[in-house]
Design a protein that fits this description.
Blueprint lengths: L1 E4 L7 H9 L8 H14 L5 E4 L9 H5 L12 H11 L5 H9 L6 H20 L11 H15 L1
Helix pairs in contact: 1-2, 4-5, 4-6, 6-7
Length: about 160
């Protein structure tokens, strides 16, 4: 059995205390966090795996982190990976355009790149609705770059 807990930085004492209380534990404060995860730890001895994922490891409690036997860091994508990610969303753009956008998006995560593409497409759809562009056209490199610049201002 495998269990993935996404965004474990969103867990707080109340979240894990509810988990602990439902199985008969009681107590308060930070110890609830330890007990809630500790219950999960026992599941690992029966052939199951508990995986916690976060983008904000620095916000996690040391007691929570100590319950995980392994920590793997996935860094930000390099330029080639960013181009490949962009290609998944903006597949109509030529490879050269994707490479130029990738070069301008250093420090962006895969999620940031997805958001850039989605924002570009929303803005483009709005332009189609307003009759500013032909509905047969697709957004070009300039629109993706503009969305990336806007995103970098919001992120940075």
């Amino acid at each position: 059995l495998g269990v993935l807990l996404r965004e474990i930085d969103g867990f707080d004492n109340t979240t894990l205390a509810d988990s602990s209380s439902s199985s008969g534990s009681s107590g308060g404060g930070g110890s609830e966090k330890t007990r809630g995860v500790g219950q999960q730890q026992g599941a690992g001895s029966r052939g199951s795996v508990l995986i916690g994922a976060t983008n904000r490891r620095q916000d996690l409690d040391a007691a929570l982190l100590s319950r995980f036997s392994l920590s793997i860091h996935f860094g930000l994508p390099n330029e080639a990976c960013r181009a490949a990610i962009l290609q998944q969303y903006a597949h109509h753009l030529p490879a050269e355009a994707l490479a130029r956008i990738a070069a301008q998006t250093q420090g962006f995560s895969g999620r940031d790149l997805r958001d850039v593409c989605e924002q570009t497409e929303r803005q483009w759809a709005s332009r189609i609705i307003r009759g500013e562009v032909d509905d047969e056209q697709l957004p070009g490199e300039a629109e993706y770059v503009a969305a990336a610049v806007q995103r970098s201002g919001a992120v940075g």
